[in-house]
Amino acid sequence: MSQNYSSTKLFYKYYLNWIHLYKDDEVRKVTLDKYYLTYRKLRELAPNLHMNELDRQRYQKLLNDYAITHERQTTLDFHHHLKAALVDALDMGDLKHDPTRRAIIKGRNPKLKKAKFLNLYELRQLLSHLNLGPDINWDWFILLIAKTGLRFAEALALTPSDFNYEKQSVRVNKSWNYKEKIGSFQPTKNEASNRYVTVDWQLMSQFRTLLSGIEEKRTIFVSPNKRVFNSIINQLLEKYCIDLGMQVISIHGLRHTHASLLLYEGVSIASVARRLGHANTTTTQETYLHIIEELQNKDNDKILHHLSQL
Description:
Strands 1-2-5 form a three-stranded antiparallel sheet, with helices on one face. The model has no long low-confidence stretch (mean pLDDT 92). It is mainly α. The protein is 52% helix and 5% strand. Belongs to the 'phage' integrase family. Keywords: DNA recombination, DNA-binding.
C-alpha cells in the first residue's frame, strides 16, 4: 500500500539508494556503470534539489541543463534512468505527483556520424582484401562478424565448442567482458541474445580447419591474461577501408552491414531480429527504419504494377 507522505531526501541521494536497492548485483556491470554515471551527473546538476521540491518545472530544468552539453539521444537515456526511479518513488508515496509527465527532451545537434554500413560491392571488396592465412588473426574475426552479425563481445567469447559443423551454425550463449584488465565470460546482453546463427558451408569449413587442435572451451580470439580493445580492430578496419578507397566503418558497422544486406535481400524483419539477438522487432525496425521505408516504397511499386495487370 502506498504511504501518504512525500520524501524530503535530496534527489541524488534518493536515486543512489534506489540504485543500491534495485540495480546492484542485478544488472550487468556495463549497464550498472550507466546508472552510476547518471547519478554523478544528477549530483552535479542538482546538488540541493529535494524530492519534495520536484515538480514538472524543476525536472524540466534539470533535463534542459543536461541537454546543453549532450545530444538528444543521450538526454533521453538520462531521462529514462531517472524516470525509472521516480516511477517507483511515486508508487511508494515518496512523490505526490509525477514530475516526468510530458517532459520535453532537448539536446545538441548530433555530430556527423561515421557511415554505418557498406553496400554489397564494398563488402566484397573488403573481404577479398583480408589476409586469411592458416592461423587465427583479426582478419578472420572481421570475416566472422561480416557473415554472422555478432556483437563484438559475443564474437570474442566464441570457443571451438560453439561451432556445429553438421548444422552449420554458431552458438551464442555468452559474451566477453573485454573492458576489464583481466577479461572473462559474462552473460549475453539479454535473453534473446542466446541464439544459434546459421552460416554458409564455406565459413564452417574454414573454421573447422582453423580450430583443429584448439581446446574446446578455450576462447578463439582472446586470452584471459591479455586485454583487447575494440579500437585495435577498428583501426585495422579503418586502414583496409582507406586502402580500398571506401568509406570507413567500425567493427560494429559490419554488424549493421550484415543486417542491412539481409533486409535488402528480402529476409523478414523477424528473422533479422532473431539473428541479431534483438529482444524484439521494434529495436530492429527503429535501427533500420531508413532501409525498411525504402523497401516499402519498392513494394508499393510492385503492388501498383500488379494491380495494373488485373
